[in-house]
Amino acid sequence: MDRDYALYLLEKIKKDYNKLALHFSLTRRFPWFEFLFLIKYIKSGDKILDLGCGNGRFIELIKDLPIEYTGLDISQELIFLSKKRFENLKKTGQLKIKNFHLVIGDALNLPFEDNSFDAIFSISVFHQIPSLEFRLRFLKEARRVLKNEGFLILSVWNFWQKKFLLNLIKYTLLKLLRKVKLDFKDIFIPWKTSQNQIILRYYHAFTKSEIKRLCQKSGFKVEKIGFLRSKGRRNIYVVAKKYN
Hints:
This protein is α/β, with parallel strands linked by helices. It has a single domain, classed as Rossmann fold. The protein is built from six helices and nine strands, in the order αβαβαββαβαββαββ. The chain has a seven-stranded mixed β-sheet, with helices on both faces. Strands 6-7 form a two-stranded antiparallel sheet. The protein is globular and about 55 Å long.
């Protein structure tokens, strides 16, 4: 992918999430129970980074753990909604985490020191990073801020399913005809806002082997990779570990 177009997509993604933040958040109110089995990678006292935290949905799974939590997202509006979620949990006595931080920031240029976190969770974010260059930068930045033997837990949507195949075929043909600037396996999926505005959201359709290869190229050891099954969905998750 042309670098300038990839930069355009990154800026578009930021603007899109600021536009649709409230409507997006309303469709993602409930905890991600399918990720409960991955909480075993968190130890008491750990510093956790929720990379692409959105509206703070992941915190529902770890709100009782004695850890330090940092949530980062590129969208100012989503960080605002995440802050409201934290405040509500704290008011009702449901939040046991003593230290939590919310940061507006860029996953490609993380505003943290080297070796800052024991684990990074990044749920449904990586598939919206355009181009090989920026995917590798995302992973290398995650590795940089992880402590030695720290875990990176990633998940992406699995677009190799029946309901997405027509989209994949459409954009493959457009790519072959040179009608789009996208890479192969890149697609746009429309989101209809509460104001009936259509926003085309960018995604990359990963395979398990592709994610594994990228993690290894970025210096991670892939400990586990598989599918998450929940409510008819079958998405991909990866557990990768940093070794110095």
